[in-house]
Amino acid sequence: MSERGQYLKYLLGTARFAVSRLLQSLGLLLGVVMVMFLLIRMAPGDPVQAMVGDFPVPDEYRDQVARQYRLNDSWLVQFMVYLGHVARGDLGYSYASHQSVGGLILERLPATLLLTAAGLISAAAMGIALGTWSAVSSRRSTRAVLDMFVLVGFSIPTFWLGQMLVLLFALRLGWLPSGGMSDARAESTGWASLLAAGPYLVLPAVALGIRELAATARIAKGATMGVLSEDYIVTARSKGLSSAATIRRHVIRNAALPTIASLGYRVGLALAGAVTIEVVFSWPGIGRLLYQAILARDNSLVVGVILVIAVLVIIANLVTELLYRALDPRIRGARHVR
Fold this sequence. Notes:
338 residues; mainly alpha; two-stranded antiparallel ribbon; 2 strands; 76% helix
């Protein structure tokens, strides 16, 4: 088969793979929403009372609210009605905020994406460097220190770490802001507002990225050590290629595949960790919005935020799998890169 034919075959295979994953994702999203409806249905408390507030209201008004939001219907009826609204792009109405759920999420989503991207990208860069260094280092002390750092990074709770960072760098040293995303007295828009958010982003990004850094370093170390044991590495060194050139030309390129794959799959964990980080640092993202919705028993907003998070995780995983297929020549039907 010609090179063009092989390329077209690869594109068709990738398209079929993407469609298959999307169909599976629809079933996953359906299951996520169904589980959330069941959990909310089983939660204690009166949803009507949560809507009208903590003050007595006439029974007629309570019945009116229940009919308006179809709270007297079975959970299956409510679930089917909600699916119909979601299919039309309507995530419901937040009775606590008196706004549409979609509008609230779109307003907070950029802040969460900025925080997650900053934490993951910085953690990926440092984790790959540390993992590769640990694998190629001939000094046991270096490996021991890096392994201890990875162990500590996995062990520290992000909620506690965030509080310690605030106490040290914000309250005691005064180097960085303790919370929020911008100065209320400053008026900036566009790129200026993004640059102004830089100092506010440092501490939450560090707190969020420590665990991801440790995970990336561990995976990068294992992948690098696996590549170093391959026969073609021994052959390259026997031909006189220096250690630095061998690592640069062969090791890093081949060890990068499992590391890149792991980063995409850790997006969901980073988004989950962003919920606690946003609460600690008062970061105005969808994680803090979810926390506030749970406290207010705003069921429509809770389901909407979790649905959006699930969509983001699915998209990240799909992009990761497609990127892996594009980078791995074995999947394209070509020879393994040596």
